[in-house]
Amino acid sequence: MSLLEKYYTDEHRLFRDAVRRYYEKEVTPYVEKWEKDGIVPRQAWKKLGEMGFLCPWLPEEYGGMGVDFLYSFILTEELAPTHCGGFFFPLHSDIIVPYISTFGTDEQKKRWLPGCAAGDIITAVAMTEPGTGSDLAAMRTTAVKEDGHYIINGQKTFISNGICCDLVIVAAVTNPNAASPYEGMSLIVVEEGTPGFEKGRNLEKIGLHSQDTSEMAFVDCRVPEENLLGQEGYGFYYLMEKLQQERLVCAMGSQVGAEEALRLTIDYTKTREAFGRPISRFQYISFELAKMATEVEIGRAFLESCLIDHLDKKLDVKRASMAKYWICEMLNRVVSQCVQFHGGYGYMEEYPIARMFRDARVQTIYAGTSEIMLLIISRQLGL
Ligand SMILES: Cc1cc2nc3c(=O)[nH]c(=O)nc-3n(C[C@H](O)[C@H](O)[C@H](O)COP(=O)(O)OP(=O)(O)OC[C@H]3O[C@@H](n4cnc5c(N)ncnc54)[C@H](O)[C@@H]3O)c2cc1C
Fold first, then answer.
1. Cβ–ligand 1 contact at 363 (below 6 Å)
2. Looking at domain 124-233, what is its CATH homologous superfamily?
3. The pTM is what?
4. Measured from the CB, is residue 311 less than 6 Å from ligand 1?
5. Which residues are CB-contacts of 72 (< 8 A; sequence separation ≥ 6)?
6. What CATH fold (topology level) applies to the domain 237-379?
7. How far is the centre of ligand 1, averaged over its atoms, from the C-alpha of 29 (Å)?
């Protein structure tokens, strides 16, 4: 039984029905096209905003519904059967917009949040650079104060929503002489159209084809001082504070992906015949399916327990990192075996398991690699 069952109200259930119906009509039929185009069109974001499905947790005064995090989970859960891994609105709703809502001034919130909820403003966050990803302290992008502006210079890469975005939160070094590199970094909002801000090409990836992931260049990019998020020099601490939810969001996507891959594979093995019987009747295959079902069930129980902690504002670094690490690795184990049990069809684009296999691979890499998760967990063990 789901640990979350007692947390769901009739409103949650009605919301789930509405989301499912909406995805069936407005997402599923377009996934193939978006995958071929390498991008999800703005119109799809706008429609999602009109439905109230972007940032539903935002207070009503900013265009949200002021609801709990379970609504975000429902939006992610229901996305799994669409097989559209590249529509990165959860990154916008649950990872990036929270920076503005938590650290923004009243003026910044009034200026940006209603557009974020409506689908008029698509957001991105730019931390990674060509020379550094895991080691944020080695960041080179600088932001120098001059005449009421920050002059940003540097390059970012692998930025999700990088082509579509209207607003990007850039991590940059504002004090190169700080006692520690962690104290010299700030978060600055750069808007589309700012002179000196250039989006690079839409990067070709092995998976997540409908997700626009790009490079970004900042060349003497002048941004008004008012676009600083929170206090200067606190960027690293803000990132650390918000990373728990980011890791949970990744774990959520991986868990529901593993469940969907297993469901598809159980169905497939029951209908595909070899040597005169459905392949699910071979003991080896049934035992492997049983192992996967066990892993998926364990992932679900741990994820739900983390979600409950998160609802109670008690989710700690260790458990969030464990969820990101284990569930994303588990997805990759499961989805790879699921391809195997589809035989040659598992390698064919027309079977959703093929896309799920490609899309899954990055889950152990972005938002903190598995190795970085292990580093963080090990630091919590009092070794
Ligand atoms: C599709 C995609 C979307 C992305 N979206 C964004 C985005 O929106 N915004 C953004 O800022 N970034 C984004 N990223 C970047 C992503 O977060 C980084 O790629 C990731 O953090 C790893 O950094 P790196 O690529 O520089 O690898 P590196 O840091 O160079 O790591 C290479 C390998 O070394 C290992 N390693 C590094 N340090 C250690 C250590 N101390 N101990 C043991 N092993 C270690 C890593 O685990 C990895 O296996 C995205 C990446 C991809 C692929």
1. no
2. Butyryl-CoA Dehydrogenase, subunit A, domain 2 (2.40.110.10)
3. 0.97
4. no
5. 56, 57, 90, 93, 94, 249
6. Butyryl-CoA Dehydrogenase, subunit A; domain 3 (1.20.140)
7. 33
